[in-house]
Description:
Elements: E1 5-6, H1 34-52, E2 53-57, E3 63-67, E4 84-89, E5 97-106, E6 118-126, E7 132-136, E8 142-145, H2 151-156, E9 164-167, E10 173-176, E11 179-185, E12 205-215
Parallel strand pairs: 1-8
Antiparallel strand pairs: 2-3, 4-5, 5-11, 6-7, 6-8, 6-12, 9-10, 11-12
Amino acid sequence: xxxxxxxxxxxxxxxxxxxxxxxxxxxxxxxxxxxxxxxxxxxxxxxxxxxxxxxxxxxxxxxxxxxxxxxxxxxxxxxxxxxxxxxxxxxxxxxxxxxxxxxxxxxxxxxxxxxxxxxxxxxxxxxxxxxxxxxxxxxxxxxxxxxxxxxxxxxxxxxxxxxxxxxxxxxxxxxxxxxxxxxxxxxxxxxxxxxxxxxxxxxxxxxxxxxxxxxxxxxxxxxxxxxxxxxxxxxxxxxxxxxxxxxxxxxxxxxxxxxxxxxxxxxxxxxxxxxxxxxxxxxxxxxxxxx
Length: 291
């Protein structure tokens, strides 16, 4: 299956300045303080939403959300026994910790998703007023590179596994045993002040999702994505051994020596990371003077 990596498109809000005519109005866009926005606004609104809404699932883990009727007997999202919370640091502000909520409908049966992997998913995204801002249906799932997605996805999806699939012979696939769940994230782990598609600035988001296929080797070079983080800083996109402006994770010749990384597996064990022919402590696939 050919991998097609798509990333979220984000639309930045620019500061609009007046032209040479000093009488023209100046429109200013003020970026809110992240700590105040989360602690004073979003944190309570997310909890209130979970306390006043419930979800239902069909046999394929398709989720619907509705408001709780006080006369009814539905269990709120907040009271769901499967609700989990992750404590996630803000990527930009020290000492700001977010509550990132998720519920596993099904954890999946096959390969564990890692934070640097590509995943084939379907999903539905909602705002706190239950407006659907985007949906990718099961029959047309899309590939996403997790390092290029929002922080909330990077934190939640590694708690799931993919499933199995069969080709139907007509260009479609049947998926089973896949991971499925929902997540609720503050805007600080999503787009914050940026507007994206139909998402207003400063919007907490809700996603229901299904993880059909996990690809842990983006460039098919026998080195897993998680092992392409050569410097170990948690950012796989800044590792470019041969400095050809292609990150190792997407480069099938990491050291630029003209020998494909997978062909530098000299002991033929399917793992190029443990081959060091000249004993200099640098694996062959990262050592441009060893073939």
